[in-house]
Amino acid sequence: MANKRSSDGDTNPKSKYHRIYNIWVGARRRCNSDKHKDFLSYGAKGISICEEWDTSYLSFKKWAIENGYDDSKTLDRTETSGNYEPRNCRWATPRQQCRNKRNNITIRYQNRIVTLAELADITGIPRGTIKDRYRRHGLVLSELIQERIPKKFITLSDGFEVCIKRGAEMLGIKYRTMMSRYRKYGDNYNKLGWGD
């Protein structure tokens, strides 16, 4: 790592830029040290730190200050499989960084790619609702953002309508079983479990 001379005194915890120094050290270790706990997610996957930053803390510090560093932000790679280098890094809020992860689910909405969390913010639909709909329906945009997914009803022989969930409760069978029968037979109440 860099000595105190090349770090401009920022190794000292009382330095105004000590946090930038720690971020630089952390990025280098994730990429270069196979003993670092996160090496398998960075260096082992081919993610590296550009030579300019790897060899010069002062170069990294200069970039950081010129590109919006403040204590509330963290170093973020805009392309998550890309390297630590000026054209692929930014200072991001924790919220921005959470939305820029390899495991985020994305969807095209109004000609741009958004995460499910962003889709929830844009549409005003609660995040939990969007995630639940995704689990049930996959990436079918119309089903993710409709105001309310209509309930499926079955009509009994006497003309009485019940929703699938209530019908399953009335018959004492699992909801999933009832939904499976509904998909297979439609609202034919005899095949769903009722008989005359």
How would you sum up this structure, described in words?
The protein is of the alpha+beta class and 196 residues long. It folds into 3 domains: 18-98, no CATH class; 106-145, no CATH class; 153-192, no CATH class. It contains 10 helices and 6 strands, in the order H-H-H-E-E-H-E-E-H-H-H-E-E-H-H-H. It has helices spanning 18-32, 51-55, 57-66, 94-98, 116-123, 127-137, 141-145, 164-171, 175-185, 189-192, and strands at residues 74-77, 89-92, 106-109, 112-115, 153-155, 161-163. Strands 1-2 form a two-stranded antiparallel sheet. Strands 3-4 form a two-stranded antiparallel ribbon. It has a two-stranded antiparallel sheet with strand order 5-6. Helix 5 (116-123) packs across helix 6 and helix 8 packs across helix 9 (175-185). The longest helix is centred in the first third of the chain and has 15 residues, at 18-32. It is elongated and about 80 Å long. The termini are far apart.
Tally of distinct domains: 3
The strand line-up of the biggest sheet is 1-2
What is the tally of helical segments? 10
Class based on secondary structure composition and strand pairing:
alpha+beta
Percentage of residues in helical conformation = 40-55%
Q: CA-to-CA gap between the ends?
A: 81 Å
Please give the number of β-strands.
6
Lay out the secondary structure.
Layout: H1 18-32, H2 51-55, H3 57-66, E1 74-77, E2 89-92, H4 94-98, E3 106-109, E4 112-115, H5 116-123, H6 127-137, H7 141-145, E5 153-155, E6 161-163, H8 164-171, H9 175-185, H10 189-192
Antiparallel strand pairs: 1-2, 3-4, 5-6
Helix pairs in contact: 5-6, 8-9
